[in-house]
Amino acid sequence: MSIDIDTARRVAHLARIRVEEERLPHLAEQLSSVLDFMEQLNEVDVDGIEPMTSVTPMALPRRKDGVTDGGIQDKVLANAPDAREGFFAVPKVVE
């Protein structure tokens, strides 16, 4: 696929980048090269291939999922403007 200078100018405008008029032919050539490469990638048969999240297969480390109270109640409540009996105290909003 070939990108003309007017299309390169429009792409530069949409990307909000300033490209000097004499650089537009070079930009058009580069954009055409990118699109040509993408066309080559479309020719690759990927049926039955699972998508990858990384080029090196690895399993993410997992921690044991255990329910706790966090163990830092005092630290959390220290930031509260008003705390009573181990809870945040808030003004009554419903009569």
UniProtKB/TrEMBL annotation:
GO terms for biological process: glutaminyl-tRNAGln biosynthesis via transamidation; regulation of translational fidelity; translation. It catalyses: L-glutamyl-tRNA(Gln) + L-glutamine + ATP + H2O = L-glutaminyl-tRNA(Gln) + L-glutamate + ADP + phosphate + H(+); L-aspartyl-tRNA(Asn) + L-glutamine + ATP + H2O = L-asparaginyl-tRNA(Asn) + L-glutamate + ADP + phosphate + 2 H(+). Keywords: ATP-binding, Ligase, Nucleotide-binding, Protein biosynthesis, Transferase. It is an enzyme of class 6 (ligase). One of its GO terms (molecular function) is glutaminyl-tRNA synthase (glutamine-hydrolyzing) activity. Pfam families: GatC. Gene3D superfamilies: Glu-tRNAGln amidotransferase C subunit, N-terminal domain (1.10.20.60). Its EC number is 6.3.5.-. Belongs to the GatC family. PANTHER family: GLUTAMYL-TRNA(GLN) AMIDOTRANSFERASE SUBUNIT C, MITOCHONDRIAL. Allows the formation of correctly charged Asn-tRNA(Asn) or Gln-tRNA(Gln) through the transamidation of misacylated Asp-tRNA(Asn) or Glu-tRNA(Gln) in organisms which lack either or both of asparaginyl-tRNA or glutaminyl-tRNA synthetases. The reaction takes place in the presence of glutamine and ATP through an activated phospho-Asp-tRNA(Asn) or phospho-Glu-tRNA(Gln). This is Aspartyl/glutamyl-tRNA(Asn/Gln) amidotransferase subunit C. It comes from Rubricella aquisinus. The lineage of its organism: Bacteria, Pseudomonadati, Pseudomonadota, Alphaproteobacteria, Rhodobacterales.
